[in-house]
Amino acid sequence: MILTMQHVAYGVGERLLLRDVSLNVARGEVVVIIGPNGAGKSTLLRLAAGLGPATEGKILLGGHDITALSEARKAGLRAMLAQNSPAQARFTVRELAYMGGLHAGRACSAVAMAGHVRAALEQVGLLAMADRDITSLSGGERQRAHYARVLVQLRSAAGGQGLLLLDEPVSAQDLARQGLVLNVARAHARQGGACLMVLHDLNWAACVADRIIVLRNGRIEGDGRPEQIVSAGLLRDVFGLVTERVPVHAVTGRPFVVPHDIVGHDFSEQNGE
Amino acid sequence: MKVVRPAPRLVLGGLSVLLLVALLCALMTGATGFGPGALWTQPHSEAARASWLVISQIRAPRAVMALLTGAALAASGAVMQGMFRNPLADPGLTGVSSGAALGAALVIVLGNAGAGAGFVAHWAVPAGGITGALASTVVLYLFAARGGVSSPTLIILAGVALSAFAGALTGILVFRANDTALRDLTFWTMGSLSGAAWPQIGVLLPVLLPAAFIMGRIAGGLNVLLLGDEDAALTGCSVGRIRRLAMLCVALACGPIVSFVGVIGFVGVVVPHLVRLVSGPDHRILLPASALLGAALLLVADTLARVIAIPSDVPVGVVTAAIGAPVFVWQLARSQQTGRFS
Predict the structure, then answer these.
(1) Of A114-128, B29-43, B96-110, B251-265, where does mean pLDDT reach its minimum?
(2) Rg for chain A (alpha carbons), in Å?
(3) What is the pLDDT of residue A199?
(4) Which residues of chain A make contact with B83, given a CB cutoff of 8 A?
């Protein structure tokens, strides 16, 4: 297992954002976390990245207790694309991509690093913009520039097959780029890495995921293959949306959803007590 | 916008040439002018020996002091701007220099050691300066880190308060001081290189070299810090460690400088800004380039200070403020518009 969470709880003050969360991510796997706003998805991802200690429970990254790993060591085992990364300084896209290798790529030669940077920029479709200033990019381009940085971090690390953590990686992308971003993530998993990501779009989730985890009110309410998870019941119970049936895509065999009504759902109950 | 940056080697090479020219001009210009020949011909005549004495004992230590001061202040400014993610941070504006002055003044007055009075004065006063600078940096950091965010204006305002407080305490010391100490204290208010001598350089070098070494170590980390603390940590940086090292090297660089030459403003904020316009925000180039440009500009400023009112010696702090303040206001207006680094 590349990532194991055992009975993890996380609280801020009195409020518990996550409770009794247990999950595994295996090598080669793409796991998607879905759930309503405020369910604790980003919190879960941050804990998996080792950004803060869990209140209870244990998190193992690459078999090591995550709290015992140094920042530099963690950098080689996982990389994370956050929801928002600011663009304050006028670095170029290429300079930003290079930053991914600052610690993870310590042992990487200059030539190899240049290769990783070039490959990552090409994959996210920014090679032609490599010399652009990141403050002049659109939101979607900037998100992909940071994506390139994150990819460089994992690939320049020894082994190069770490855990890719993505928090709503397609939020700022057009439809074609959404596919591109997810495809790169899946390719990373297929090449021996793994990917754990938060997605809002259930159709993309069903399309790209090997496994979907449903998070609601800080608890895991479902963990299974897309066709097991994406159902009319899930839509009604978790998202408050009505659909008569969830059809299966003729080509991919994956479920897809087209909601046609909203239940009078009490959202205040979902977001905490 | 496509960004074209000159090669780092070109930037650093060009600035080195500029520094060399500024150094030669500083050595040759003054109340008595010398041709370049005076710098390397063997002094035979009485007059030539006198010129040699002027150059080697007065102008050369002063020029080297100007060079080290400019380099230390400009590089410290760049480090502080990276550490606070704030393009307006500067040792002078944020009260670090005032803190250093207070620390040094405490040693002078309470220790009753006039500058130039032997080993203790040479080492204890700068040590007081380092301590004072470190204390102000820590106070500023705790203040800035409190809300998790550090708005540019907030840091400057905190710096104004810190400067005023340290200045007030230094003011009290002035009234407790004897005449020798008083002379040492008053020149700080303006910042002057007129007292520069070789023994001070001998004290500065062993302190500035480790500061430069630390800056080299944290340059890459300061780049990633500009992405935010979280992204920096995710990239593998120990954010707290980088900030602590940044505070340490700023204190090591500014503390002894301020205790020898007083408070010289605007070098730390203007120079890194100019460098960023040309070579971008990468600290691995920004820090050495700022040091070179800061050294060259302060040499030019001090040469001006020596010649604009011959035979008087205008404090160099007056010149840097006269040039730096308008540039700073321009920069302030620009950062209000864009809210970002240069």
Answers:
(1) B29-43
(2) 19
(3) 95
(4) none
Asked whether residue B17 is domain-assigned, the answer is: no
Q: Is B282 on the interface with A (CB under 8 A)?
A: yes
User: How many other C-beta atoms are found inside a 10 Å radius of the C-beta of residue B223?
Assistant: 25
Q: What is the pLDDT of residue A272?
A: 43
Name residue B135's amino acid: A
pLDDT at B334 over 80: no
Pairing state of beta strands A56-61 and A3-12? antiparallel
Cβ contact (<8 Å) for B1 and A132? yes
Residue B151 belongs to what domain range? 61-336
Domains of chain A, CATH where assigned:
1-69+200-273 (3.40.50.300)
pLDDT given for residue A22 in this prediction: 95
A161 contacts chain B (CB < 8 A):
no
At residue B340, does pLDDT exceed 60?
no
Task: For residue A153, list chain B residues with Cβ-Cβ distance below 8 A.
Answer: 235-236
Q: Using a CB-CB distance cutoff of 8 angstroms, which residues of chain A are in contact with residue B341?
A: 88-90
Q: Is residue B123 part of a domain?
A: yes
| Beta carbon pairs, A and B, within 8 Å | 88
In a domain, B266, yes or no: yes
| A 66-85: CB under 8 A from B | 70-76, 79-80, 82, 85
pLDDT tens, residue by residue, A23-74? 999 999 999 999 999 899 999 999 999 998 999 999 999 999 999 999 999 9
Q: Which residues of chain A have pLDDT under 70?
A: 87, 261-273
Q: Is residue B26 part of a domain?
A: no
Q: Spell out which residues of chain B touch residue A73, defining contact as CB-CB under 8 Å.
A: 236
pLDDT at A271: 46
Count of the separate structural domains present in chain B: 1
Nearest Cβ partner of A51 from B227, B233, B341? B233
CA-based nearest residue in chain A for residue B81: A89
- Is the pLDDT confidence value at B46 over 90? no
Interface test with B, best of A42, A43, A71 (most B CBs within 10 A): A71
A51/B234 CB distance under 8 A: yes
How far is it, in rounded angstroms, from Cα B49 to Cα B191?
Answer: 31
Distances (CA, A) of B170 to B105, B109, B175, B181, B189: 7, 10, 9, 12, 10
Does position B147 have pLDDT exceeding 80, yes or no? no
List chain B residues with CB under 8 Å of A135: 338, 340
Query: Predicted confidence band at B145 (pLDDT cuts at 50, 70, 90)?
Result: low
What is the 8-class DSSP label of residue B341? -
CATH of the domain at B143: 1.10.3470.10
Distance between CA atoms of B140 and B87, rounded to whole angstroms?
A: 15
CB B72 within 8 A of CB B254: yes
- Tell me if chain B has a CB within 8 Å of the CB of A131: yes
